[in-house]
């Protein structure tokens, strides 16, 4: 099964490096001026194996049997709108972790609507691009509603150091990956503000409760959120400075500047989650506060006070 990666950011490049252990991989990006040097500046220190072919021609990548869409969540709908005809009927695997701000849906709905004849799956879970590219052991969730197609994709995308666990709960898997970014911003804010690890543990725990509550409301299986794509990814991104969402939150808490060129999926997702929760009548105070913090609508001090003075209740 031939494989192409759509999106030559750090994560897409890391996947290309890892999957080239199984055979040739095509990596597509809008800017491939770096390709001659065989090192992507977004993933410094990692040389591309010979089995990875870099191209700026989408038609070349779209000829593969399976395409991994390694695009930011807020760019996915636009890309699908422009190129659906080249993608429909393929095996499409999204790695985006977010909720679209306009549609208030995850990647699976965007892909299914744009490419109704495609076999759609989601690859998500606790992973950093640098770890995958270096060949460090990583376990991920592969979610596909079609169990037989999921098995085939699982075998095609697994390597000796990249282990995939399969589920048919696409909604739960993609929501776990999206919502954990929001909580990671909150955890980073707590650390940046100097509130300590006990406060971070509280944010992680109560944030996980919010994640599970919303996912169940949207039809996910609660046990999916206790797996790699939920609790696993939440643990990683709330405790490591490799996480862009955690670093962004830490800068908010410390009142420091953050590189505006760095993609922070959780900031946009927080706004989408706040809108979605309001539509559904779900109480998600941490997500709502992250949305306000990211937009500059509340100070860190006032956000903390608001959360700590909420009515007392049972856990």
From TrEMBL:
* Gene Ontology annotations for the cellular component aspect, listed alphabetically: cytosol
The record's family statement is: Belongs to the NAD-dependent glycerol-3-phosphate dehydrogenase family.
Which GO terms label this protein's molecular function in UniProt? glycerol-3-phosphate dehydrogenase (NAD+) activity; glycerol-3-phosphate dehydrogenase (NADP+) activity; NAD binding
Could you tell me what this protein does?
A: Catalyzes the reduction of the glycolytic intermediate dihydroxyacetone phosphate (DHAP) to sn-glycerol 3-phosphate (G3P), the key precursor for phospholipid synthesis.
Give start and end of each Glycerol-3-phosphate dehydrogenase NAD-dependent C-terminal domain: 169-304
Q: Where in the cell is it found?
A: Cytoplasm
Q: Which residues form the active site?
A: 180 (proton acceptor)
Enzyme Commission code(s) on record: 1.1.1.94
Per the record, the major location class is: cytoplasm
Under the heading HAMAP family, the entry gives:
NAD_Glyc3P_dehydrog (MF_00394)
Report residues binding NAD(+). Answer: 7-12, 129, 244
Its gene is gpsA
Tell me what this protein is called: Glycerol-3-phosphate dehydrogenase [NAD(P)+]
Q: Tell me any Pfam family this protein matches.
A: NAD_Gly3P_dh_C
Residues reported in the UniProt entry to bind sn-glycerol 3-phosphate: 97, 125, 127, 180, 233, 243-245
Alphabetically ordered keywords of this record: Cytoplasm, Lipid biosynthesis, Lipid metabolism, NAD, NADP, Nucleotide-binding, Oxidoreductase, Phospholipid biosynthesis, Phospholipid metabolism
Residues where NADPH binds: 11, 30, 97, 129, 244, 264-265
Question: Where do transmembrane segments lie in this chain?
Answer: none
Q: What is the catalytic activity of this protein?
A: sn-glycerol 3-phosphate + NADP(+) = dihydroxyacetone phosphate + NADPH + H(+); sn-glycerol 3-phosphate + NAD(+) = dihydroxyacetone phosphate + NADH + H(+)
Pathways involved? Membrane lipid metabolism; glycerophospholipid metabolism
Task: Please provide the Gene Ontology terms (biological process) for this protein.
Answer: carbohydrate metabolic process; glycerol-3-phosphate biosynthetic process; glycerol-3-phosphate catabolic process; glycerophospholipid metabolic process; phospholipid biosynthetic process
Q: What is the lineage of its organism?
A: Bacteria, Pseudomonadati, Pseudomonadota, Alphaproteobacteria, Rhodobacterales
